[in-house]
Design goal:
This protein is an alpha+beta fold. The chain is built from 23 helices and 21 strands. It has a four-stranded antiparallel β-sheet with strand order 18-5-20-19.
Amino acid sequence: MLKFIRESMQGLIAWAIIILLIVPFALWGINQYFGNAGPLVAATVNGQEISVRSFQQAYTQQRNQMRQILGAQYDPAIMDDRIKKQALDNLVDREVLYQNAKDMGLRVSTESVISTIQGLQNFQQDGKFSNEIYTRALQSQGETPSGFESRVQQSILTQQLYSALNGSAFVTKNEVDDIIRLQQQQRDFSYLTLPVVKYKDESAVTDEAIKQYYDAHQAEYMTPEKVSIQYVELDAANLAQDAVPTDAELHQFYEERKSQMVTPEERRARHILIAVPKGADEAAIAAARKKAEDLRKRILAGESFEKLAEKYSDDPGSSKLGGDLGYFSRGSLDPAFEKAMFSMKVGDVSEPVLTSFGFHIIKLEDIRAEKAKPFEQVKDQLIKEYRQGVAERKFYKASEKLTNLAYEVPDTLDDAANAVGLKVMTTALFDRKGGKGIAANPKVIAAAFSDDVIKQGYNSEPIEIGENHVVVLRMKEHVEQQQQTLEEVKDSIKLKVMNNMARDKAKTEGEKIIAQLQSGEAPAAVAKALDAQWKESKGLKRDDHTVNASIVTEAFRLAHPAEGKSSFGGTVLVGGDYVVIDLTKVVDGEVGKTDEAQRLTLKRNLTSQQGQDDFNNVLAGLKKKSTIVIEQDNI
């Protein structure tokens, strides 16, 4: 339909189509005003709607975050449904908490909302809130200030509820002691390994067993869906190669940029440092300040700054030079020191200035004024910036042509490529895990497997894969997921069946041995019959890494043995080996050996975990009491 419209937008037929499209949309818009229709709803919580738009924003944000984290390993087929569910669950949770917080009488002032927004670094420039950046950022996300501010207000309110619940958690001294006993517990045990390789028997794997496994696990033996693409790549870096400015153009460019190409103002100063140790008390700080003030008085009375710096300054680097620090521009020194130095006149001696090092007495020696850098000094930089500017202008013009033609002629890239002087490139087939070159880019992979490209056969939208670097792609070849035949996978299935049989045999044999040990048979006799050896481990803790983690976990899962007796158990290792464990001794951790700092850290962690558990339980209870309706067809 869209293709037909694009090709037929001329004459009366075009106007007829436009009218047919406009009238229903116009009427739908009128219905919006009269309240007979509304935005699609993703869910309702006690009658309060969560719009599909809000859901899509949350889903898109979480999906983009996962793509950045996983890169080429991001698989939309596996991840997208999970992310959708998580995004909607989060919105429902937030709405449940928000409603409960309001019912409890919690409130958020407008000032708090404004303060929170202005404190977000994404909306700041040079450390200060920028309304321009704020507005532009919201517009880029399709968000309005009122909508965003409402969400911030909601977030602050739910955070208040979370803090109230989380902050009410507490842990007793006895609970901390119990955790210390468990965490620091030590165990003595021996273990015997039954190697899975001992039980592997290729001859035991029949064709019937292979066929049964294949029939039961056909989903495991599918060739992945693959696609190859054609693409046009527009990169500003390639557009700058032919941009060679003349001397006249370069000098004009220099005059335009002259105010920005300057050597910044520099100041030369001396200082005397009276150090204040970290953690010093008020008396020590006062004493250091008094010493600095006395030295300043002596300087103002006519004594040599240089000689006093040599004798009293605690800065070993500059004291030998009479306190001389050399020249510095802004942004090079401690903010407090710099603020004082750049407010002084030549010859001034400052009041004591406190920094993280201590108190400084500063004397300003000289000022080098800001001055423009000469043309020859910045010529190379000018050429680079000139070429970059030309490349960016060419890029924006070319990208506009590329975007328009890729949309207007959706069934080929040739017209778009010819319009911007680029070649249509092709990749080999690749699956959702990606391929080589451009096919390894997560954004390209996602677009290549999108419905518009695969099912509709359209060109993709421009995909930004770098700064001033975009690609537009379309499908060249699509290979559906296919079932592999039994003959194709027979050898791999035979190996898997043999390994599974061996694992089962090793486990069965191990469980028989445990039963023998529990009935009283001597561990040494069991080992001798198997031609194996017990490996002994004494005083192992839960976090020990000298023994396989699965063995340690199972050893700490076993019940305390009676005096002079053993507790027996077993576990299957990742490779299939079965391990029999003989636990002989358990020694609890000593509470008295844990110092107060460790106890405090442990208590804080336990309290935090308890608070989180309490919060999760309250949230679950609130959701159970709420009427939550998910509009599955809308998401």
